[in-house]
Design brief:
CATH class of the largest domain: Alpha Beta
Largest sheet: 7 strands, mixed
CATH superfamily of the largest domain: Type I PLP-dependent aspartate aminotransferase-like (Major domain)
Strand order of the largest sheet: 4-10-9-8-7-5-6
Number of helices: 13
Helix content: 25-40%
Distance between the termini: 43 Å
Strand content: 5-15%
Bound molecules: pyridoxal-5'-phosphate
Structural class: alpha/beta
Shape: globular
């Protein structure tokens, strides 16, 4: 088999940056060669050179059971033998709609699509169609996929001035997007169609919602008749059986899902109260569609994955995450490096700061320190794979055993030493 380097050289000629999603590149962690995965099993991935990594990327949270779970593999295999796409409805679509709506209080109807990006883009369109308004509010540092209107404010310094975060987006596409700081409840007016928020912000490192933030958004949206959208593409069926809305006891009008609900295959979903979702075509005037939407193989994988999750799964995940957070905190404290490891259930962050950031501006202080890069490379070299970016979170899966967690902490102890050395050498 080709080496990582051979593959990466060729990939860079054929694919921009050699990767099919920029977060996979190693540019923000020193620019090394990404490991090309040959296979994964449980908590581990194996690269094309036979090197093994304990994997905390887990497809950015999509693989909550770990890789190649045998029940999921069986469901995919069986579904594939029956045909992988038809352009006609299939029973799995009904089954997964029932599974998902059955777990989340207030979620009455859903529509399946093929990615989280499609889910958030479509939810906005529905919210605008339902309210007859244009303006949307998003929070700085929250990621909602890469549709034009939502690619503003993952870096904007001027809160109310919407600037696109990417070339190729017309100013007009973000003209109705208002970007505000996370964890501050804005005062809305009746020009607002929707407020979209990650109920736990997991794309600016990990920032938990402050007490009263989500409820405050609920109250403001109620006051002005705006649609509250929880983007649960990460939190959905990771925080609890009922996702973040049930976990925090705040019910939005609409939800978006992705990642976990596909059991590792491409899927997305948006949903909400029936009154809102009945605005969607063919019942209502808001158009939304997809050739592969509700794909029989993806839904089979999703159903298999969701069916394996129960309250005990979440208890187990939370226990592992807590142990990992405490272990990481200790190894850094042992070498005198300030870190804060916030966690919400099985989502963990890592900040090279002595406090937990409340918003993106604060998170960037850690992001800009360069210390994550040192930690990342030191962990990777020793066989533990974290995401190659300081704004991603750590995703333990159900396949991570207590031994895996203990081993991670051992490895982190050495890596923390490397961070301490780096700080000393660079005179931080
Ligand atoms: C990953 C993510 C998305 C986008 O999902 P894709 O499947 O990558 O398009 C949207 N919102 C949140 C919160 C995400 O983490």
């Amino acid at each position: 088999m080709a080496t990582n380097k051979e593959l990466f050289d060729e990939a860079q000629r054929l694919i921009p940056g050699g990767v099919n999603s920029p977060v996979r590149a190693f540019r923000s962690v020193g620019g090394g060669i990404p490991y090309f995965v040959d296979r994964g099993k449980g908590a581990y991935v194996f690269d094309v050179e036979g090197r093994r990594y304990l994997d905390y990327v887990q497809s950015y949270g999509a693989s909550i059971l770990g890789h190649a779970d045998s029940d999921v593999v069986e469901a995919i295999t069986f579904a594939a033998t029956k045909g992988s796409t038809f352009g006609a409805p299939t029973p799995n679509e009904v089954a997964i709609a029932k599974l998902i709506t059955g777990r989340v209080d207030g979620l009455e109807m859903i529509r399946l699509c093929s990615s989280g990006t499609e889910a958030t883009m479509s939810a906005l369109r529905v919210a605008r169609g339902y309210t007859g308004r244009d303006k949307i509010i998003k929070f700085d540092g929250c990621y909602h996929g890469h549709s034009d209107a939502l690619l503003a404010g993952a870096g904007s310094g001027v809160a109310t001035l919407s600037l696109p975060d990417s070339a190729g987006i017309p100013m007009a596409a973000v003209a109705s997007t208002v970007v505000l700081p996370y964890n501050q409840v804005p005062v809305l007016d009746d020009s607002v169609a929707a407020v979209i928020v990650e109920p736990v912000a997991a794309n600016m490192n990990l920032v938990a919602p402050a007490a009263g933030f989500l409820q405050g958004l609920r109250d403001e949206c109620d006051r002005v008749g705006a649609v509250l959208i929880f983007d649960e593409v990460i939190t959905g069926f990771r925080l609890s059986m009922g996702g973040a809305s049930n976990y925090f006891g705040v019910t939005p009008d609409m939800w978006t899902f992705g990642k976990v609900i596909g059991g590792g295959l491409p899927i997305g979903a948006f949903g909400g109260r029936a009154e809102i979702m009945e605005k969607v075509a063919p019942v209502g005037p808001v158009y939304q569609a997809g050739t592969l939407s509700g794909n029989p193989v993806a839904t089979a994988a999703g159903i298999a994955a969701l069916s394996k999750l129960d309250d005990s799964s979440y208890l187990m995940l939370a226990g592992r995450a807590k142990a990992l957070a405490e272990g990481l905190t200790k190894v850094f404290s042992d070498v005198g490096v300030s870190v804060t490891i916030p966690y919400v259930e099985s989502l963990l962050g890592i900040f090279f700061l002595d406090f937990a950031p409340k918003n993106y501006e604060e998170s960037k202080i850690s992001g800009n320190s360069g210390l994550y890069s040192v930690f990342f490379n030191s962990m990777l070299m020793r066989g533990v794979a974290l995401a190659p970016g300081s704004y991603e979170v750590i995703f333990p899966s159900l396949a991570h055993t207590w031994d895996d967690i203990e081993w991670t902490i051992d490895i982190a102890s050495a890596a923390a030493g490397d961070v301490a050395d780096f700080i000393e050498r660079s005179g931080h």
